[in-house]
Design brief:
There is one protein chain. The protein has about 900 residues and is an alpha+beta fold. Among the domains are: about 160 residues, Beta-Lactamase; about 120 residues, Heat Shock Protein 90; about 130 residues, 3-Layer(aba) Sandwich (Rossmann fold); about 110 residues, no CATH class. The chain is about 45% helix and about 20% strand. It is built from 25 helices and 28 strands. The strands form six sheets. Strands 1, 2, 3, 4, 5, 8 and 9 form a seven-stranded antiparallel sheet that branches. Strands 15, 16, 17, 18, 19, 20 and 21 form a seven-stranded mixed sheet that branches. It has a five-stranded antiparallel sheet with strand order 11-10-14-13-12, with helices on one face. The radius of gyration is 38 Å and the shape is elongated.
């Protein structure tokens, strides 16, 4: 019963802590807001004194640390401590313990900065043997029954490993009691020393330093016109003019330092033991790294001053006291499920408890007897209910933890995708501009290297994101008709430059009968599999080695083909015992003896393995260490004897930019705005650029655009809420496109409530971007001819179909020329005759929209010539598109 109550109360305390944290966070935000409002009244300080003051502060800090070191060494050499450690029996030890405790009491009495002094024994539990505390100005010796086990604490485990007379210093953090931050806030530094007796560590002595007084004097020693900052190597502030920004890591906040100083994230790596000066538009800062005696932990001190604000007082007014009322609601709900009663009263109480049991478990089969076994029954039911409650709570905690972890992972992937793809988008665009700018011959290798490195970085990002999607089962194959050899050849050619750069022989061997093979295949995922295997082969093959891509046709019939694909290399090979590990997540064999500069995420092969599972295949490995490796897999694909196109090819799409277009670009990145300007500026287009969310509301409402391109983040603010506003500026036949670094483009499309015509993922080359825009415009405007009826009429006979397609192309070319003549000369009779002649083809191939448009053309003598030219141009483009579609079909039947 007591265990059940403890569990229940613990849950209530957790809920109370959540509310306390919410109030504290709200209070911190309010304080930060007030600080920002009053930050305009900042004191000017003498810039010439900053460096001198910084040096003085550095010396003072190091001196304070050195004093702590001397004190802990003094305590470790105390004769009272030595007597306690070498006491021959328990009686003497207890007597010496009293003397040592009194000595600790006296020590704390003379050292107001120290809040706690302990001796912890070196046993499996790390039990505190002696502890003296300072609480609210009072010093007391903690009784034995209140001492705690500290064997799992970091400071205990680190200190016992130190040599004699070494001193451990902890990171500076906030003091906590039972896992909660103590109030009032107490910055704490722990110093500890191992205690050796006859070469054996008997325990440690640890001294907790409360840094409030030191920090207070530290701050007061700074000139009133200066701003003092102390922060760690992650960028979290320990001392800051705004106390709400101190110890952000204790409240799970992001580091403030890079934002505070408006400097790059890696600026800490440039700060050393010498004073470093950094200037911004409004401030001058002096930084210095403090020689803090702890490995892998650094502290930096900074003094800053405004350039242009000259005021004598620190503030015209001080912070008003912000009264924070923390309402601590302790919900103590006592559930009395069972209690012992005498005979019939006990049975009645147990029955009522069973009825009210939260999970409505059936208790009707409990034995009913009127003897002393009722007490035993009550205890059994109590144990059962406690076990069930514990299991339910464990499941709830596990679910919450899993959901939290998944949410954190999604947030990380989203941020990583956006933050990396955005600059990659600029790099890809600028690289293309360099290529178009007629570079010199000696510049071409640099441009190729830049393109190759950009491609590798994008592949790395895609590997990480795709691995996550694969683990969650979010990737499905999208099989489409593919000319298999063309796909293989493109993949092969994309790695020739990399192979040549490493002086590696790279060959493609493919069975001759596969060169005209059409299959249904997800070309993107298949390319990802093959690219990973080829990339690894080249990466781990030394100079003058060879890599071979071999495609073999095992079995082929009318409906399917079985292909064996091998990637061979003469590289360093893989040890037999590492076969399994090398295919697992993030596992890499140590190959540094052969390759010094290769790196990656270690995700390539795991992605290959999981993608091949989607294809119904398995990756096989045959390797001899020091001689090379062969990665292979067999894949069965559906073959296509009569490949037809049910989509519009990229080669047969409308040219969106043949006529002047009005374009609205919403982008806050100046480099991307410049890139888009270069892409779309052709002397005819009208381009409007918006870089701030406020500018969107200031656009003229009657202006409409043929093309709107936007990212869904502007100045770190989501534009999802104003997509409808942006959509209102689009012409009825225009395009609304998002170009984003988000890793899930389906989520972006869904979040826009499907107002977007297309989502393009960064990075993308300028040519590819224009192609995608024209492709989207084509799909929107162009009604695809349905040629299946023609194929059926000729029983899929290639000879007859080719003849029919040639006649059809000639008929449409002649009709298009006649229509142009009729429209420009306002010849209604000629126009009607041409439309009548085309009517059969238009209806047969289901081109209803084009037929209606042709019928609705009104040719009157008073029609404006520009209007006639516009109508003719629109009809010519659409009919020419149909001709290109027919010609594309003709090529596929050749």
């Amino acid at each position: 019963m007591s265990d059940y109550k403890t569990k229940f109360v613990s849950l209530a305390l957790k809920n109370a802590i959540v509310y306390i944290i919410l109030i504290v966070v709200s209070s911190v935000l309010i304080g930060y807001f007030l600080y920002r409002k009053s930050s305009a009244i900042i004191v000017n300080s003498s810039i010439q004194q900053l460096e001198h003051d910084l040096e003085v502060l550095d010396v003072r800090f190091i001196s304070y640390i050195e004093q702590i070191r001397q004190d802990i060494l003094y305590l470790s050499r105390s004769p009272y401590l030595n007597d306690y450690l070498i006491a021959p029996n328990d009686t003497q030890k207890e007597f010496n313990k009293v003397k040592l405790s009194n000595d600790y009491f006296s020590f704390l009495s003379t050292k107001p900065d120290y809040g706690q002094l302990r001796f912890i024994a070196n046993d499996s539990l790390g039990l505190e043997k002696i502890r003296t505390d300072r609480l609210k100005g009072h010093i007391f010796i903690v009784p034995s029954d209140a001492l705690q086990r500290k064997g799992s604490s970091a400071y205990f485990r680190e200190t016992i490993l130190l040599p004699k007379d070494s001193v451990y210093f902890s990171e500076i953090d906030l003091n906590k009691e039972y896992g909660k931050i103590s109030y009032p806030i107490m910055p704490t530094l722990r110093a500890a020393c191992p205690l050796y007796v006859n070469g054996k560590v008997e325990g440690i002595i640890i001294l907790n330093t409360i840094l409030n007084n030191f920090f207070e004097h530290f701050k007061k020693s700074v000139h009133s016109n200066s701003e003092l900052y102390l922060f760690n190597d992650i960028g979290h502030f320990i001392i800051h003019p705004d106390s709400t920004k101190e110890f952000g890591f204790e409240y799970a906040k992001l580091p403030y330092a890079p934002l505070e100083f408006k400097l790059p994230l890696d600026f800490l790596t440039t700060i050393g033991n010498d004073v470093k000066r950094i200037e911004t538009k409004t401030h001058i800062y002096y930084f210095k790294k403090i020689n803090y005696p702890r490995t892998n932990y650094s502290l930096y001190i900074c003094l800053g001053a405004a350039k242009d604000v000259i005021l004598s007082p620190f503030y015209d007014w001080q912070w008003s006291v912000l009264v924070i009322t923390l309402i601590i609601i302790l919900l103590l709900v006592f559930l009395a499920l069972f209690w012992m009663r005498k005979q019939t009263n006990g049975l009645e109480s147990i029955t009522k408890s069973m009825i009210s049991f939260p999970n409505s478990l059936s208790v009707s089969d409990l034995p009913l007897n009127r003897n002393d076994e009722i007490g035993l029954l009550a205890n059994t039911f109590q144990a059962m209910s406690s076990t069930l409650q514990q299991n339910i709570q464990s499941l709830a905690d596990a679910k919450a933890s899993a959901e939290s972890a998944n949410k954190s992972k999604e947030l990380f992937l989203e941020n990583m995708s956006h933050e990396i793809r955005n600059p990659l988008h600029s790099i890809v665009g600028m690289t293309r501009m360099l290529e178009d700018n007629h570079p010199r011959t000696d510049q071409l290798p640099f441009i190729e290297t830049l393109k190759f490195s950009t491609h590798n970085l994008l592949s790395l990002v895609n590997d990480i994101l795709d691995f996550s999607k694969l683990k969650e089962g979010k990737i499905q194959l999208q099989n489409e008709p593919v000319q298999f050899y063309d796909l293989i050849n493109k993949i092969y050619k994309s790695y020739i430059f990399e192979a040549v750069s490493k002086k590696i022989s790279f060959k493609l061997i493919c069975d001759e009968e596969l060169k005209n093979l059409w299959v249904k295949l997800d070309a993107l995922r298949f390319s990802q599999v093959l690219s990973n295997l080829i990339s690894n082969a080249i990466k781990f093959t030394p100079e003058y080695g060879h890599v071979e891509l071999n495609i073999k046709n095992e079995i082929k019939n009318d409906h399917s083909v079985s292909l064996v694909i091998l990637v061979k290399d003469s590289g360093i090979g893989i040890r037999l015992e590492n076969y399994k590990l090398i295919l697992e997540r993030f596992q890499k064999e140590n190959r540094q003896d052969y390759l010094k500069n290769e790196s990656g995420a270690g995700l390539g092969l795991p992605i290959v393995v999981q993608l091949l599972e989607l294809f119904g295949s398995t990756l096989k490995l045959d390797s001899t260490f020091g001689e090379g490796s062969i990665f292979s897999f067999e894949i069965i694909l559906e073959s296509i004897n009569n490949p037809g196109s049910y989509t519009i090819s990229k080669e047969s799409q409308f040219s969106f930019f043949e006529i002047p277009r009005s374009i609205l670009i919403i982008e806050d990145d100046p480099q991307l705005r410049m890139l888009y300007q270069r892409i779309f500026e052709n002397g005819r287009n009208t381009i409007k650029q918006v870089s701030q969310s406020l500018e969107i509301g200031e656009l003229e409402s009657d202006l409409k655009y043929d093309l709107i391109i936007t990212d869904f983040w502007l100045e770190k603010v989501s534009l999802f809420d104003i997509f409808e506003k942006i959509f209102s500026f689009k012409k009825p036949d225009g395009l609304f496109i998002a170009v984003t670094g988000h890793h899930d483009i389906d989520a972006v499309l869904k979040s826009s409530h499907y107002l977007l015509d297309m989502v393009i993922q960064k990075p993308i080359s300028p040519d590819k971007m224009i192609s995608e825009i024209e492709y989207a415009f084509t799909h929107k405007e162009f009604q695809i001819p349905t040629l299946e009826v023609l194929y059926k009429d000729y029983d899929y006979d290639p000879t007859l179909i080719l003849s029919a397609l040639k006649l059809l192309i000639n008929e449409w070319k002649d009709a298009r020329e006649q229509l142009s003549k009729a429209i420009l000369s306002c010849d209604t009779g000629l126009k009607d005759a041409v439309v009548h002649k085309l009517a059969n083809s238009l209806r047969r191939f289901n081109l209803v929209k084009l037929e209606n448009q042709l019928v609705m053309i009104k040719l009157e003598p008073f029609v404006n010539s520009k209007q006639l030219e516009s109508t003719n141009r629109d009809i010519q483009v659409k009919m020419h598109q149909c001709e290109m579609f027919f010609e594309n079909e003709l090529k596929k039947w050749l």
